[in-house]
Design brief:
The chain starts with a helix and ends in a 7-residue tail after the last strand. The chain has a single domain, classed as Rossmann fold (3-Layer(aba) Sandwich), CATH 3.40.50. By secondary structure, the protein is of the alpha/beta class. This is Xanthine phosphoribosyltransferase.
Length: about 160
């Protein structure tokens, strides 16, 4: 996990990142290590509305293709501001809906997306292309070209070894 954080920190070190943002829960580990390496705070978008934070929330709807359901995600407005340059980190990228929801929250704060770091991108799905076509810089540590008959084919060499 430390190496993942170092790799993302090196990839985005010239982007002026002020915050790292991820979606609970599996994105927390790589995002935490990235925030640590960059020396910036980590923000975690919640999938359930916290009882203690009922007002002043940025919200976005995210569709999970794995769970086949739409959920609302939340970030307190007190933690994300217009001057922030936010690096979004997640564990997997398939159809891009989680990352798009996080970019929507950043836009609501009138902040800027400094980039998107993905541990494993399923390149055979359209999420990476969707995010890149919208102008986001996406860095994926591993890109899976296909998964068939129990075999994983990588699109290119894995960045973090």
């Amino acid at each position: 996990m430390k190496k993942i954080g170092e790799t993302f920190a090196n990839a985005f070190c010239h982007e002026g990142v002020t915050k790292v943002l991820t979606l609970e829960s599996s994105g927390i580990s790589p995002a935490l290590m990235t925030a640590y390496e960059l020396g910036v705070p980590l923000l975690v978008a919640r999938k359930r509305k916290p009882v203690t934070l009922s007002e002043n929330l940025y919200t976005a709807k995210v569709y999970s293709f794995t769970k086949r359901e739409e959920t609302e995600i939340f970030v307190s407005q007190s933690f994300l501001h217009h001057q922030d340059r936010v690096l979004i980190i997640d564990d997997f990228l398939a159809n891009g809906q989680a990352a798009l929801g996080l970019t929507d929250i950043v836009a609501q704060a009138k902040a800027n997306v400094a980039g998107i770091g993905i541990v494993i991108e399923k390149a055979f799905q359209d999420g990476g292309q969707l995010l890149r076509s919208r102008g986001f810089r996406v860095v994926s540590l591993a890109r899976v070209a296909s998964m068939q008959d129990g075999t994983v084919q990588f699109a290119e060499e894995v960045m973090c070894q």
